[in-house]
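Q: I have 231 residues here and want to know how they pack in 3D. Can you give me a structure?
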Amino acid sequence: MLDVQHIDLKYGQSQILYDISLAAPVGQITAIMGNNGVGKTSLLKALSGRHPVAGGQVMVNDTAVPLGSAYVAARAGIAYVPQGREVFPMMTVRENLETGFACLPKTAHQIPDDVFDLFPVLRDMQGRRGGDLSGGQQQQLAIARALISQPRVLLLDEPTEGIQPNVIQQIGDALVALRDQGRMAIVLVEQNADFAYRIADRFAVVERGRIKRTADKSDYSKEMLMQDLAL
């Protein structure tokens, strides 16, 4: 379980997030939805230690995670797939994957076959440079790299942005497979409402830096989601 409690975040004198609280259970995909500029990416940066918070607490499996350090967050089991993918362009696919070893003991420095089973295209491209991959292939690499760290919580920021439809389907299928393994909580920030509604189990709608609504999919139709996003 990822448990976010009363997070406030500022950029200089401007407050971006206000009293954000939400829960993301293991074995479920929680989609954070909202229009551009409402603070969704800022929230993921806070949870992954990439931006300091002005207040609040993050718990992973009932243990508080010190905020403000990406390394500490990774050691606590939080893996982050950033918007724009951020693969290392001059490093090979295999070298990109091996960067996920940084927060693991040396005995765990191996790429599991499960990663290549999820993203078979990467198996045949291990010697190719990250910068030579297509956008969809880079997105699969970024997700695979995050999985190398054996996360308890997987954060994904706009994984379908700029990706061709067939790869979007593959990414969705991979996330559903990860969810069904029941080993991690998955938190998805996504503008593609069709994609998010297809795979998510829970929703949190953000408006002007605040949580406007949280709902389980069983109680929340796609029409309700679209109405919330239209406001």
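Q: Anything worth noting?
A: The mean pLDDT is 95. The first strand starts at residue 2 and ends at 11.
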